[in-house]
């Protein structure tokens, strides 16, 4: 059997599910950033989880342009692993709005405020359920993929379709140039807050060995089941914060937000290496 090249030992995974009335990010936002994100992954292996007309064709064209070895799985949002598990979060939103909590003055970077006031109220309950299902399904999808990873793949990493937006806005932003212990999940810190404290993890990039993902997934799903109905408007990062706090030995922070810089324009960011 021919030796597997080093840049082929990691399988990158990405998700792309357009959501009607998504007030957090519209489709144009992702269509603009996807080519830049794909360029970052030139010459690598990439698996796409997706649904929607024309997405597979666009993805294949971008992959070919950058010499990416691509594969894909079509999965409906309603078939995502956590689609039903997130229902208590939607019920929490309904209760908070009925109690008038969406009028409370809370810090803009508090996760609960962002999700309740923008993602739930402006997008609607159905769209927000889809968003939360996508966010919280990242780790279950990585764990499932790890169990049947192609021969030669040693680690599996999630990269958001919009990962290019982080160029220059956090230290060590280029994950392809970083290294970390094999027995840990590599991630970046977050500029957002959870109950007033900085979130320890941003889920735009998550990488671990194929042996570690099933363990982390079990911890994540346990935490999701425990926290989904606790009265906070959760996403995958707030749920993972509990896993990080209880199991710090399983995680490695690659970099942190650069103070005063959240996002660089793509043209400027392309000059930052």
UniProtKB/TrEMBL annotation:
The lineage of its organism: Bacteria, Pseudomonadati, Pseudomonadota, Alphaproteobacteria, Rhodobacterales. This is Uncharacterized protein. It comes from Thioclava electrotropha.
